[in-house]
Amino acid sequence: MKSLKAFLGALLLLASAAHATDLSRAVMLAAGEPLAGTAYAETVLIAAPLAQGGHIGFIVNRPTEVKLEDLFPEHAASRKVVEPVYFGGPIFTEGVFAVARKAPEGDGQVVALMPGLVAVLDGDSLDRVIETTPNDARYFAGLMLWRPGVLEEEVREGVWSVRPASVDAVLRGSQI
């Protein structure tokens, strides 16, 4: 009986580990030991699969000292945004992106990250977020992108530890 309990416990651990590395839905990633001593040490990010393959992500714990109004001084609505712009990742660092609870009205480039969370990728949609719900989003300079299979390999190698995704962890900087 004792060995059956041990076997079932081990099976549950394996099942939870397999679930933890399920990258077919949004996850929170925390930098693993291989990133110690690099620019990515202690980073936390959200990563979500893209329909065409690969993953998109945003570093959620790297606020900059730049405010949105500094980047868009002619855009009056930008002055309403309280939080600083975050460094989202090394790809498209000249771009500003929003992660918000819902997509803005109209057509635009929006990627659903998870229920209750979207990435707004184009300028017109970004403007609509800033104008309608300026503090219900987080703004990022740059983002993370992984080609198909790359994030899975990084997780297998221990580059990232995987945790369940949380809207609050992304938008309000809660710990994962």
How would you describe this structure to a colleague?
- With 176 residues, this protein is an alpha+beta fold.
- The protein has one domain: VC0467-like (3-Layer(aba) Sandwich).
- Helix content is 26%, strand content 34%.
- It is built from 5 helices and 10 strands.
- Strands 1, 2, 3, 4, 5, 6, 7, 8, 9 and 10 form a 10-stranded mixed sheet that branches.
- A hairpin with a 5-residue loop joins strand 2 and strand 3.
- It is globular.
- The N terminus is likely disordered.
Which features does this protein show?
ten-stranded mixed beta sheet
Sequence of secondary-structure elements: HEEEEHEEEEHEHEH
Distance between the termini: 36 Å
Structure class: alpha+beta
- Name of the top-level CATH class: Alpha Beta
Number of helices, counting only DSSP H or I runs of 4 residues or more: 5
Question: Biggest β-sheet: count, sense, barrel?
Answer: 10 strands, mixed
Ordered list of secondary-structure elements with their pairings:
Elements: H1 2-20, E1 27-31, E2 44-49, E3 55-59, E4 63-67, H2 68-71, E5 84-87, E6 91-100, E7 110-114, E8 117-120, H3 123-132, E9 137-146, H4 150-156, E10 160-164, H5 167-171
Parallel strand pairs: 5-9
Antiparallel strand pairs: 1-2, 1-10, 2-3, 3-9, 4-5, 6-8, 6-9, 7-8
